[in-house]
Structures are given as C-alpha cells and as structure tokens.
Design a protein that fits this description.
Shape: elongated
Largest sheet: none
Structural class: mainly alpha
Distance between the termini: 6 Å
Order of helices and strands: HHHHHHH
Radius of gyration: 15 Å
Strand content: under 5%
CATH class: Mainly Alpha
Number of helices: 7
Amino acid sequence: MTIQELYQSIDGDYEQAVRVLRMDKLIDKHIRKLTKNGVVEKLIDAGDSMDPTLLFESAHAVKGVCGNLGLTKLAAAASEIAEEFRPGNPRTLTDAQVSERIRGIAELYAKTAEGIGRYGEG
C-alpha cells in the first residue's frame, strides 16, 4: 500500500499533508507515530472526566496533529471540542453532547488507526 492509498482508505487529505510536511518520507514518519503517541487517547480519556482544561488541551493537540497530517475529519471534530472548552468561550453543548462527539472521534480514530496498521504491515 502506498501512502496515497492509505490516505484514500482512511478518507484523509493527502494533499493537505503534502502542503504541511512537504514530502512522503515525513508524512510516513508522522502518520505511523499517530497510533503510538497517545494524543487521541488522551482526548478520549479526558471525555470521561469532563475536565474543561484537559478537554481543551487534548482536543487542541488532536486538532493540530491531525490537521498537519491531513486527517481533516478528525481535526474538525477535535476543533469543535477545543472551541467548546476554550477558556472564555461560553459552553454550547451539554456534557452528553460532548460525550457523543468524543465517541464519534473515537470511531473515526479507530478507522484511521486500522488503516495505518494495514499500511505499516506493507
């Protein structure tokens, strides 16, 4: 599987990753790290506590990492959580709605991690 085929299989934006990271070698390096760095898992765990600071910080980290990698759906979903818990922003979602959004992030991430796993085997 090529890096482009990986991006097709996980519904990522390969061109976005190229704009940020510039070369396949760097995209490959960083996409492989995603499943090992625990950034998404921290967001999922933060959803259990509903700690506003943890939710903001972890969602902001996911947004940045995934945005740079061209994982636009994950980045957008994390951005919604980051903005919900950004200091000074009024809350617009209930805790139940936040939990639902985080479950959606977990599902998107599971599909992405599965694709990265298949890519890593090739």
